[in-house]
## 1
Amino acid sequence: MSKSLDIKISNTGIATLTLNRPERHNAFDDELIVEMTAVLEQLAANPQARVLLLTGAGKSFSAGADLGWMKRMASYGEAENLADAQKLAKLMHTLDTLNMPTVAAVQGPAYGGGVGLVACCDMVFAAPEAQFSLTEVKLGLIPAVISPYVIRKIGAGQARRYFLSGERFSSAIAQKIGLVHELAPQDEVAVLATSWATQLLNNGPLSMAAAKRLVAEVADKPICSELTSLCAQRIAAQRVSAEGQEGLTAFLEKRPPNWVKH
Ligand code: COA
């Protein structure tokens, strides 16, 4: 692994992934994208990792796509260009659907694809210094690959403003429009995010993964018999699962469930 990513897994199961390219404000190029995707895939398969904490080293959370890499793509053909863009799409999808809770500690500004990473996380904590901006149109680009995740978070109405203006907005605005869940002073953001990551360890790991899939399956769907029956199937399966049975038995026996480490 290059030094542009740092991964540490605590004894308790918190995997802290730090974007570590501060001299480029943690911008990600093709190499870093492939590497980060591979790291996330390895975490998904690692039973030691139970919660992902994503943060950035240095002043910025992430300056998004590496603009040198974007510019270089002009020398590639259409097919290579598309295949390359799919790699970023894969990174966003992998983060978005990771089989464990993902917590972002946004300690500094996030631009373009950096906003995309934030939008793919389950819980987002940000410092007042963490300004946000979808700058793509200022560069003659569009926030295409990240758009499903950002629009899902902030809605089409807000996306129309921020995609088109490219303006910077504060973490307070980001919280108001749903991109950020909670604000904390810069020196406390990591502490708050870690405290939440620690609390998540008390919840059933498989049930959290299933709850996350449930949100994806149910969000924005019309409430019809197909959907209500799918939801009934989901709880019917979960309550008889080993984890469901352990959680229910632990409650009734007034003891902690077996996934809680002492
Ligand atoms: N891709 C590649 N390099 C980047 C980058 C990016 N997205 N963002 C910053 N850098 C580089 C700068 O080119 C500069 O390189 P240099 O030292 O070789 O000149 C270095 O990081 C430091 O950036 P600099 O602009 O000098 O720092 P700053 O504190 O004045 O400004 C930013 C920081 C992030 C506000 C500014 O660099 C910026 O606006 N970057 C573009 C962010 C963006 O629009 N991202 C969306 C991409 S779709």
Note: The CA atoms of residues 43 and 49 lie 6 Å apart.
## 2
Amino acid sequence: MKRWTIKELYAQKPVGEEVVVKGWLRSQRKTKTFNFIILNDGSSQGDLQIIADAELPNYEQFSKCGTGSSFAITGKVVESQGKQPIELHATNVEIYGNVGEDYPLQKKGTSMEFLREIAHLRPRTNTFGAVFRIRHHLAQATHKFFDEKGFFYVNTPIVTAMDAEGAGELFRVSTLDPANPPKNDKGEIDWSEDYFGKQAYLCVTGQLEGEAFATALGSIYTFGPTFRSENSNTPRHLAEFWMIEPEVAFADLDDIAQLGADYIQYMIKYAMEKCPEELEFLNRFIDKGLKSKLESVANAPFKKITYTEAVEILQNCKKKFEYKVEWGADLQTEHERFLTDEHFNGPVIVTDYPRDIKAFYMKQNEDGKTVRAMDILVPGVGEIIGGSQREENYDKLVERMNEMGMEEDLYDWFLDLRRHGTVPHSGFGLGFERAVMYITGMSNIRDVIPFHRTPNHVEF
Ligand code: 4AD
Ligand code: MG
């Protein structure tokens, strides 16, 4: 007999039909003559209620099974008087596996910290089921959004020789024996003996290779894992995270800022359409204001200010910050959060940052001090998007690279994009986990990625 998912059962309500459902026991409650079994199969937020009569031959066995046990249950779909429109009247209960006595998810109200230690089991909880179904739909929304706009999906390399962001937060990729590496005449490690013949790293971005494709196919986006060894033990930093990076030929900073806002709003609307039950659940148990926040952000235009205006707002407000606000310094999380959570009470686009705190490839403004950069900040999270118009002028780009002491050899191919048929172009990177945090209301980035990698943590 065909297995039905619980999601399909609620969608089609095949009253009178005999079906099989398979899933994990949420709870069972015994009466004198039957058991109420509550089963969830992960297909949706919804549990199925099943009535299993005491006459069933293995009643004693399955009645003893604990929360988390796996069952295949055959039965007839009947209308229900309960909360759900239908329930199942069981004719057969097959036990796949009972749980051991030490099953860690039996108790209610376990902490997020504890659940991180059992990240292989936490997807079975209502909260994580909701988060990861939403994460799936946001990935689908991403591909749909860009595809509908005529963008091409490009897979950029994960292993690279370039520190494109210049922040020195690279994980080395090497096959040399760390105990006995080959040395050159100067006694330094001879990287020419390494697998790639030079030093190699995990990518911090796919942008530079993305630019090669944008200056050929017009509009492209990447969606892949990126790696940063920054030593940031915060609720919004991961060592391994996923980034979506659109890159658009002939687009300027305003175009790309609008694209970023449209993309965030598209994801929010997509989640509201595809995951109403998940959002309802998270709104009840995780973040009470989640649904009203999403509804208000979905349609309102994003505020837009320059970095210089942001600094003025921060310097003139009454709030005491831990880090001093000074023109030229990067905005700290507390500053970003003040702008989004208190001053604007919504997302804000900040443009034209000081050139000295930004990457080499950003287009320089006429003032000689700022670059055509933009960050999109959202309440509760802070920076979710970082992007810019790119420096398309060969001479200016080379000058900046020299100023920053970059190895020109490594970037020679990148300079070709400016030597041959250069065009104005712009792009941004959206941190996928930060978007998932924002849209689910989860407050720690470790809880929106299946298995998190952070300093001193590479479990599972
Ligand atoms: O602002 P970032 O560093 O920009 C770039 O990497 C550009 N190459 C993007 C581009 O223009 N194509 O990173 C982009 C986004 C940030 O806004 C943030 O959301 C996320 O990536 N991000 C992180 N997310 C989780 N953990 C980290 N350690 C992150 N670092 C950046
Ligand atoms: Mg950034």
Note: The radius of gyration is 27 Å.
